[in-house]
Amino acid sequence: MASLRSPEELELLRQETLAAREATTARVSVCAGAGCMASGADEVIAAFRAEIESQGLTADVDTKGTGCPGFCERGPIVVIYPEEICYLQVTPDDVPEIVAATIKEKGVVERLVYADPVSGETAPRESDIPFYKHQERIVIGNNIRIDPKNIDDYLAIGGYAGLVKALFEMTPEAVVDEVKKSNLRGRGGAGFPAGLKWEGSRDAPGEPKYVIVNADEGDPGAFMDRALLEGNPHSILEGLIIGGYAIGAHEGYVYVRQEYPLAVENVLLAIEQAEAHGLLGKDILGSGFDFTVVVHQGAGAFVCGESTALMTALEGRVGEPRPKYTRSNVKGLWERPSVLNNVETWANVPLIINNGADWFTEFGTEKSKGTKIFSLVGKITNTGLVEVPMGITLREIIYEIGGGIPGGKEFKAVQTGGPSGGCLPEALLDLQVGFDELAQAGSMMGSGGMIVMDEETCMVDVARYFLDFLTDESCGKCVPCREGTRQMLNILTNITQGRGRAGDIELLEELSEVAVGASLCALGKSAPNPFLSTLAYFRDEYEAHINEKKCPAKSCKELVTYYIDAESCQACMTCQKKCPYGAIDGDRDRIHVIDPALCTKCGICFEVCPPRYDAVRKISGEAAPPPPAEEERTISRKSKVT
Amino acid sequence: MDSERVDQIIEEYQCEASALIQILLRIQEEAHWLSSNALHRVSERLGVSMTRIMHIATFYKAFSLVPKGRHEVHICVGTACHVRGAERVLDSVEDATGLKPGETDLDLKFSLETVNCVGCCALGPVMQVDKKTYGKLSAADTVNLLQSYE
Amino acid sequence: MSEVLLQIDGKEVRATEGASILEAACAADVFIPTLCHHEKLEPHGGCRLCMVEVEEHGRSKLVVSCIYPAANDQVVTTRSEQVDRIRKMILELLLAHAPDSETLLELGREYGADRNRFDKEASFCINCGLCVRYCAEVKKADAVGFLDRGTRRDISFIPEIAARECWQCKECFPLCPTSALQAAYVLVSSLAFPGARHQAPSEC
User: Fold this and answer.
1) Other C-beta atoms lying within 10 Å of the C-beta of residue A506
2) Which residues in chain B are contacts of A40 at CB distance < 8 A?
3) SS (H, E, C) chain B
């Protein structure tokens, strides 16, 4: 790999790469993100390469594993260029047909393209697929075009042009000003204006200064940063180098969670390739600016996503947050000025420098500019990553892009902001997505996790679940968080298990007040949010659990009873055979009965009872009807012989 | 892990104390646990106290002070997987292996852990065995899958 | 060193620049309760008992006085309804671990803390860190440290070091508000001291 000593040499390489690209007749992109790989994408890639070779087309057709485009529900995803034909849920067996029909004949394999679930209307081109059409994919849109393991792909789509502009056409102060003008707010959760943070570090005394990528992405259910770091690592590196130039830092860190081995691998490779090309290291492109990047892996601690705890971990210590009486952009890593920003924030920087702050401010609302990538997961038809302009409503995201709730179930709530966030009910579906709007409603933007819940989700259990998470992940240093979450979890567990008492809600509120007011860091201060928001919007569920020992969602195991409706049971023996605990009594001619003494409420019988019988029933807060008397259990069937 | 190998890893990081967590991650990955000998060696060579090392070794979930099994089974209990029934998958894995999260069986075959999100939320509920990810699992699937491991 | 002028509970107080609000208050004979604070140790900021209300730059906020620096024109209030509520709850949460601790009970009396508010927890240790920090900062022996995180956080002796250092020392013992430390020491010495033969139970 040639070391590029000037912007002109970079441009030359870019043109050469583009020319080579034009020479191909077709390009096959297969998503090679962690999700699709788990669904067999590597086998699909291998199948393409093998089939293309056997057809003698290797010289003309380029196949690559690419970054994640976000339509995770329908992976493995394949896009054939230049026509942009998008195939979904591709298996290795489909490959010969695709090569013959699309690559050779330039036609379409109808059964593999997107089809509207109601009308059946197909959308063969990627940009016509409704899931993508309603998005504004300025950041993640490039993922499907590039092989993250090959820097030349990034160059081909204009990569590192932003860096050239910053280093050669702008002063560091001008770069800070542009980011300030763009109103880019941190995409990690707090939404602090990035430009102000950078300015604070630029002006603070102390050397050396540092720029840090927070790729810890600890919020369960959020995987936007994984997709960006795995799928387009250079976009983050480019942003980071620009940031370093802006504030006067020559060392950058990428702190990435070790639970993302592919992201670690790809970013290490990206750094290696950038160094080989002279885009990292000494005198970048002959600009006189030196910059190096080190990757540091997390070791499994959610609290290390908190910026001061992350810096403490970078210093080789346990991730205990520090009080923010002096901001970390003034005194951060090793007590030096440090700018820490989220992966998605950094990925936006090259776009802002290339296209200008004015361009960026055209997206979004007055106070929340740009786009946001959300991981839309849970009880939703189109699970995946969606990038939308700020200001879009929750309803549009969940129904127009997400395809609504599967299985004919009713929407109940959408949870945003991870363990620091809250649940928003149906009444708020027309809320416009933005930092301040979500916070005012009792939740927060957070890093972008958006978890959809339906009628079968118990909101008290959601609060309990998050407290359980936080009692494990709290660093444990301060009393309000460690002991407060401990007691809140005890009380919520008791409530979900039928041991709720009058006064529990008030005690939980008191504990919440202390955690919010007195905790050392944002983890503790926001720990009560899931409880407070579910209490605000779903108080009736709390009261049902406590006063009636009833779980309206029929989810809390201890409060649920399974029984078999005698009228509907056809003694098919399906549940009886599947019950792991031998708790169902019955045979081919006798109506089945569940023995409550043996039943562990695992729910398998409920899952397997054929829908046409619908005999296994689930209830809560009331006693099951008594089983039929022994004499009445015999089923008389009409004879099939006349 | 013998002292010589520990020394080699430490030297890769120029004996920097700030690389302590990275060094321990390497040892954990190669040896599948952090032995007392290895930790004492690190303490000596890096000049950091055993109390700091022990706190780190117990604070971070990636580390284990007891040997792990041949196959590390991670059940994701992140929010998206939870909402899709990860608890039931965990229950059936606990039944099938006889283990609770954090435990390793006596033949050192399986180690069971819960994990708070591996970022494959579209495939939930998710289970990882060694580095392989399995998605869209039901309670019954997991039992079959585990039986295929030696 | 220059001086700063602030108000604590209506009293004019002078403090050296760089001093914490707690130090300024102590010097002016204003009492602020603490648990994890010790004059020989770096401030820890863990117990949160010393939280006070500070008004500066036109805004009011709650801060831990052992760490927050005193500054000109600050108006500090050491007791208020909110502060008292927080202190009461902190003590009740800790009393769930060590309901018989004289230190906690005495502090608790001032705020009406109910030692039986919460179900009792198994571990006496309240994670104040006095033992750990004293051993690290004053004795520089690092014989005892923290383990784990969250609700499982605890203290533990390093057996080999404790076997060597603690017998003659034990200076941390009087610092422990709950006697969890002494219990931890007895446990490690009886189970894990390498080759120890000289257990003298009466001395524990």
Assistant:
1) 9
2) none
3) CCHHHHHHHHHHCCCCHHHHHHHHHHHHHHHCCCCHHHHHHHHHHHCCCHHHHHHHHHHCCCCCCCCCCCEEEEEECCHHHHHCCHHHHHHHHHHHHCCCCCCECCCCCEEEEEECCCCCHHHCCCEEECCEEECCCCHHHHHHHHHCCC
Buried b / exposed e over A518-540, threshold 16 CB at 10 Å, is bbbbbbbbbbbbbbbbbbebbee
Q: What is the pLDDT of residues A262-296, one digit of tens each?
A: 999 999 999 999 999 999 999 999 999 999 999 99
| Domain chopping of chain A, boundaries | 22-128, 151-361, 371-454, 459-548, 557-633
Residue B8 shares a structural domain with residue B34: yes
CB spacing of B60 vs A318 below 8 angstroms: yes
C positions 92-121 inside 8 Å of A (CB): 93-94, 96, 118-119, 121
The alpha carbon of residue A380 is apart from the nearest alpha carbon of chain B, in Å, by 10
DSSP character at residue C60: E
Distances (CA, A) of A281 to A171, A250, A278: 20, 9, 7
Question: Per the domain annotation, does B64 fall within a domain?
Answer: no
Report whether CATH 2.120.10.30 matches the domain A22-128: no
pLDDT at A16 over 50: yes
Mutation for A interface: C89, C91, C116, most A CBs within 10 A: C89
Using a CB-CB cut-off of 8 Å, the residues of chain C touching B54 are 145, 147, 156, 158
CATH for A371-454 is 3.10.20.600
Quick one: average pLDDT of C37-63? Answer: 96
Contacts with C203 (C-beta within 8 Å, 6 or more apart), sequence order: none
Residue type, B83: V
Dihedral (CA of C91, C95, C98, C101) sign: positive
CB contact under 8 A, B116 and A221: no
Residues of B in contact with C156 (CB under 8 A): 54
Q: If you count them, how many residues does chain A have?
A: 642
Which of 3.30.9.10, 3.30.70.20, 3.30.1330.30, 3.30.70.260 would CATH assign to domain A557-633?
A: 3.30.70.20
Cα separation, C133 vs C155, whole angstroms:
11
Q: Which two tokens stand for residue A486?
A: 């401990």
Residue A253 makes CB contacts below 8 A (sequence gap 6+) with A210, A211, A212, A213, A293, A294, A295, A296, A314, A333
What are the strands, taking DSSP E only, across A195-275? 209-215, 249-256
Domain of B13, in residue numbers: 3-59
> How large is the greatest C-alpha to C-alpha distance in chain B, in angstroms?
50
With bands split at pLDDT 50, 70 and 90, how would you rate the model's confidence at A2?
Answer: confident
CATH annotation of A459-548: 1.20.1440.230
Question: Is A35 within 8 Å of B119 when comparing Cβ atoms?
Answer: yes
Contacts (Cβ under 8 Å, ≥6 apart) of A473: A218, A301, A302, A303, A419, A523, B116, C149, C150
Pick the CATH number of C3-79 from 3.90.25.10, 3.40.1050.10, 3.40.50.620, 3.10.20.740: 3.10.20.740
Orientation angle between helical segments A161-169 and A233-247, nearest 10 degrees: 10
From chain C, the residues in CB contact with B59 under 8 A are 147-149
Q: Is A518 on the interface with C (CB under 8 A)?
A: yes
Q: From the CB of residue A207, how many other CB atoms can be counted at a distance below 10 Å? A: 9
pLDDT, one tens digit for every residue, chain B (150 residues)? 899 999 999 999 999 999 999 999 999 999 989 999 999 999 999 999 999 999 999 999 999 999 998 899 999 998 888 888 888 889 889 988 899 999 999 988 999 999 887 888 888 899 989 878 888 888 778 888 888 888
